[in-house]
Amino acid sequence: xxxxxxxxxxxxxxxxxxxxxxxxxxxxxxxxxxxxxxxxxxxxxxxxxxxxxxxxxxxxxxxxxxxxxxxxxxxxxxxxxxxxxxxxxxxxxxxxxxxxxxxxxxxxxxxxxxxxxxxxxxxxxxxxxxxxxxxxxxxxxxxxxxxxxxxxxxxxxxxxxxxxxxxxxxxxxxxxxxxxxxxxxxxxxxxxxxxxxxxxxxxxxxxxxxxxxxxxxxxxxxxxxxxxxxxxxxxxxxxxxxxxxxxxxxxxxxxxxxxxxxxxxxxxxxxxxxxxxxxxxxxxxxxxxxxxxxxxxxxxxxxxxxxxxxxxxxxxxxxxxxxxxxxxxxxxxxxxxxxxxxxxxxxxxxxxxxxxxxxxxxxxxxxxxxxxxxxxxxxxxxxxxxxxxxxxxxxxxxxxxxxxxxxxxxxxxxxxxxxxxxxxxxxxxxxxxxxxxxxxxxxxxxxxxxxxxxxxxxxxxxxxxxxxxxxxxxxxxxxxxxxxxxxxxxxx
Amino acid sequence: xxxxxxxxxxxxxxxxxxxxxxxxxxxxxxxxxxxxxxxxxxxxxxxxxxxxxxxxxxxxxxxxxxxxxxxxxxxxxxxxxxxxxxxxxxxxxxxxxxxxxxxxxxxxxxxxxxxxxxxxxxxxxxxxxxxxxxxxxxxxxxxxxxxxxxxxxxxxxxxxxxxxxxxxxxxxxxxxxxxxxxxxxxxxxxxxxxxxxxxxxxxxx
Lengths: 492, 205
Known about the structure:
heterodimer, A: alpha+beta, FAD/NAD(P)-binding domain, Guanine Nucleotide Dissociation Inhibitor, domain 2, ten-stranded mixed beta sheet, eight-stranded mixed beta sheet, 12 helices, 27% helix, B: alpha/beta, Rossmann fold, six-stranded mixed beta sheet, 7 helices, 28% helix, globular, GDP-dissociation inhibitor activity (chain A), GDP_dissociation_inhibitor (chain A), FAD/NAD-bd_sf (chain A), Rab proteins geranylgeranyltransferase (chain A), Mrs6 (chain A)
């Protein structure tokens, strides 16, 4: 077998997060020689998913309050609890994201034929959290109506509210039309909330419904962005079947796509090394020479790497909780013929949670609850992925959110909490840069829903690596690579 | 063929160290071809499909090679998802290849569900007469220790080439619940995102 040093690689890719992995898939299947390495012993980088044991090892490396992209990680396990299953019965996603049905990520996975190895599950109902009206009562969850049928049958809405929402949905579905632009144009960069109030006379409850559907981290966005996000949601609704607008890859979300993309890269001829980073690099006129931590020295025409150093403009605080209840009420199919959802999302609007000092918490919190159908936990349990913008009180707010959520979803007794993981994730670098023979890819932003903008730098990197071949090669369009064979009878 | 898609699909993996002869075995079994010059890692094919009838019932057998990801031990957990059976292949003329098998068993057991069929294959049996480095008994003992079936085979001479594939399918279909049950099958709520549907549809039958 050839040694790694005998080849001049077209591209060495360092890091196996979603973007690098999709790049490896696209380049190797476009005929380029790819060496794909990752300093981690696992696939997925910041998009990875872990067993309990791997989670504990990861927390050990990211416990410090300042250690790059991930920090302040800690695990809480209630004493004496015996409800946890074995380590590999769990797959905890570091940055779980739902994918809207109309996302370009899905269409690229289909056109590159990689989708066949991923199992997609439906993301079902969206809820908003409603705090208890007085201390004697429990908080509740209200389902967010997001289709016309939903709205028509939603008992909690007044006729006036229904009319307002219907009018708004109709408006968004054609929001790029000339007449519609005339309405929102003047509000383009002003807050979406104000626009909803001024142009659609929505009260604060209705605004909360709409903001919930945007899955925004801070609840604040421009009218232009808000409309685009709601448009994405509405046009995704029903696209792959009735009753849902987004999907989630089974077994760990984006991590699974990254692994499948790497496998497809390997099928296309890419060579894979984990636990291998770059020790030193030296650029000459024709290529760049890399000394790998494995001891190998390799030459490549282009080096693509991620940027896990920069924290970026903001951080997200995350709390992942395993609870001993299937939380069935969250996973009902509400539309006839709809697949049983495996993921359900609840938003805690800004001000709906109270801090220890009994003051309202000013930022929204969200939770994506994953049922055991995701393969991320054993049956009878659920995984709760809470996230919110990092603030000095965000950890406290997340704990409050977990408490309040469990109160709201359970009729009888509180489900047992088996395991809690807390950490903070930086936004990471935003832009990609090309510096001679080194191209740096940005990170996937840590939002609740996958943002298609994260795909653009991959295509740019692909074009840089393809050079003159870009013109006669289609991006991410590949035939199936499977061989169907004759029948065989075997009877004994 | 559309009608084939309705057949129950079995996913079987071939794993083991580089150069053990996984691809030769697969190619001989599926295409009845053998290329003595080929020593490069397998690339280009995602998986091979073979329709197979066992005791009068037809199955769609999908066979997944390592695509070279065994070289630096970088097979992903997703590669193992939904596998019904794993063929673990070593070279009877290489002690070194046999010595890695304990780790391959560990990896396969850690990444697959309970009851998954494991099958140990000592490949390159044609070399046994001149350069055997692993005895039949050693192979059998290792297989026994992991509850796996065992045989030796040669892609070159065709000896026993069909045996591991047929035996593992037989074992899979006679293990209650393996085809339909637990985490192995596709979930009820699976969403079809591709135009021509899932290659693993119909697992629930």
